[in-house]
Amino acid sequence: MAEEVDVVNEVYGSRSNLPFDVTVHKELTSNQLAVLLGADLDFLHYIGHVDEEGVQCTDTKLDLQTVESIGVDAFFLNACQSYNQGMALIDEGAIGGVVTFNEIPNRSAVRLGGTMARLLNRGFPLRSGLEIARDETHLGNQYVVIGDGTFSIAQAESGTNVLCVVEEQVDCFEVTLKTYPTDQKGIGSEVVPFLGNNDQYYLNSSEQMVFSLSRDDLIDFLRLEDVPVLIDEELRWSSEIVANEL
Question: Is the pTM of this model over 0.85?
Answer without folding.
Answer: yes
